[in-house]
């Protein structure tokens, strides 16, 4: 789960990380009021969306008058910002953060993230901040410093000092830098975060070390014990299909294909998507219905898949271990009867009570295509998808002739 910049900064201040003075605004008039509350004569109006590279997309405006603040807020609020991280659809800006202008002497990069390869936490830093770290890794990999932290031991002072020197900080700034670095680590550890990024971390004209931007991502699986973090979720920034799936306890990730998938088990889902690709198709989603695929849960999963108007066919692939194929079959039949499914449906069942499940589907006399193996199911759903596309093209051609 991602949160906004202003939310991340509010969290970091509780851990001793300094930030520039700022305030949140939902309207142009409110943004001017926030600017009046902030000392100085330069303000920065920042679009609050779940994406990096906002500056390149025109999402960050430097203003020198209250009129400029108002104009910047009017331009950003309600705007669809498109960055290389949002995809072509972009994300809507519904709030802006008005921040005091900062005299920047030096920009740096600091990040903590979970590193599964080392089963620990890696601290990443660079004396060159304010740019995409991916670009820097390609052009100048030696400019990036990585320090691996053992979770059972935690971040040590010598590691924090080592990173501070790698950032090019002076000895007089060392104490403040160590406090900032340790605060960031404690925030990641205490709140079950996956990633904490400050880009840029800057030295100001008066020698202060402040986080000029901040990003935090949290482990969804730990939100049940982090209610204060779960309340920060902004559903308008996520894929509406994924948000709906989360509300129903389903694991869903939207993709760009046109074959809807409904599968139990993440591993089987990955294998099914690979098989669809191998057969010449493109999956529209990753959807794991889990082990308790009741009739009601199955119907919700169908509705979720069909919410994607680009879906041309659906593949249900269930391997019943803890679950039972007859229960799944009853759920599929129940869902098909309750939902107006206008696209081809291919069902492949395997495992416990598979014969009974196949009998239930056959006796339902519903337009359900069955398959015995995963390869057969993938082939059938791709052919069914191709037939739908062919009919659509034929209809358009006939319409043009008319």
Distance between the termini: 51 Å
Number of strands: 18
Average pLDDT? 88
Query: Given the helix and strand composition, which structural class is it?
Result: alpha+beta
Query: What summary fits the major beta sheet?
Result: 6 strands, antiparallel
| Rg calc | 26 Å
Strand percentage: 15-25%
Helix content: 25-40%
Spans of at least 5 consecutive residues whose pLDDT stays below 50 are none
Provide a count of the helices: 13
Q: What is the molecular shape? A: elongated
Report on this structure.
This protein is of the alpha+beta class and 402 residues long. The protein has 13 helices and 18 strands. The strands form 5 sheets. Strands 7, 8, 9, 10, 11 and 12 form a 6-stranded antiparallel beta sheet that branches. It has a 4-stranded antiparallel beta sheet with strand order 1-6-2-3, with helices on one face. Strands 14-16-17-18 form a 4-stranded parallel beta sheet, sandwiched between helices. Helix 11 links the parallel strand 16 and strand 17. Helix 5 packs across helix 6 (174-190), helix 9 (266-278) crosses helix 13 and helix 11 packs parallel to helix 12. The longest helix is centred in the last third of the chain and has 28 residues, at 374-401. The two termini are 51 Å apart. 37% of the residues are buried. The mean pLDDT is 88.
Which terms summarize this structure?
402 residues; alpha+beta; six-stranded antiparallel β-sheet; four-stranded antiparallel β-sheet; 13 helices; elongated
């Amino acid at each position: 789960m991602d949160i906004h910049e202003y939310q991340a900064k509010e969290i970091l201040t509780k851990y001793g990380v300094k930030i520039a003075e700022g305030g949140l605004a939902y309207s142009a008039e409110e943004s001017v009021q926030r600017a009046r509350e902030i000392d100085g004569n330069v303000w920065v109006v920042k679009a609050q969306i779940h994406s990096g590279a906002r500056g390149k997309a025109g999402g960050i405006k430097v203003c020198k008058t209250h009129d400029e603040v108002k104009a910047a807020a009017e331009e950003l609020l309600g705007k669809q910002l498109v960055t290389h991280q949002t995809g072509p659809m972009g994300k809507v800006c519904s709030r802006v953060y008005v921040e005091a202008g900062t005299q920047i002497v030096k920009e740096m990069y600091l990040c903590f993230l979970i590193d599964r390869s080392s089963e620990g936490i890696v601290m990443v830093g660079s004396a060159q901040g304010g740019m995409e770290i991916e670009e820097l890794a390609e052009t100048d990999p030696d400019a990036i410093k990585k320090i691996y932290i053992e979770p059972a031991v935690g971040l040590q002072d010598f590691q924090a000092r080592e990173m501070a020197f790698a950032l090019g900080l002076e000895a007089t700034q060392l104490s403040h830098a160590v406090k900032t670095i340790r605060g960031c680590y404690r925030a990641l550890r205490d709140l079950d975060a996956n990633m904490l990024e400050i880009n840029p971390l800057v030295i100001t004209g008066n020698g202060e070390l402040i986080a000029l931007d901040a990003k935090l991502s949290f482990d969804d699986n730990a939100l049940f014990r982090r209610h204060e973090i779960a309340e920060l979720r902004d559903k308008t920034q996520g894929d509406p299909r994924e948000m709906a799936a989360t509300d129903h306890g389903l694991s869903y990730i939207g993709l760009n294909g046109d074959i809807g998938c409904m599968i139990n088990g993440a591993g089987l889902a990955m294998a099914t998507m690979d098989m669809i690709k191998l057969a010449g198709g493109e999956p529209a989603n990753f959807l794991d219905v889990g082990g308790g695929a009741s009739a009601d849960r199955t119907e919700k999963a169908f509705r979720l898949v069909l919410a994607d108007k680009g879906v041309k066919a659906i593949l249900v692939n269930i391997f019943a271990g803890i679950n039972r194929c007859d229960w799944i079959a009853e759920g599929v039949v129940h869902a098909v009867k309750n939902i107006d499914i206008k696209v081809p449906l291919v069902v492949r069942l395997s495992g416990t009570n598979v014969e009974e499940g196949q009998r239930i589907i056959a006796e339902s006399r519903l337009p359900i295509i069955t398959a015995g193996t995963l390869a057969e199911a993938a082939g059938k759903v791709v052919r069914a998808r191709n037939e739908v596309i062919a009919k659509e093209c034929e209809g358009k051609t006939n319409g043009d002739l008319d």
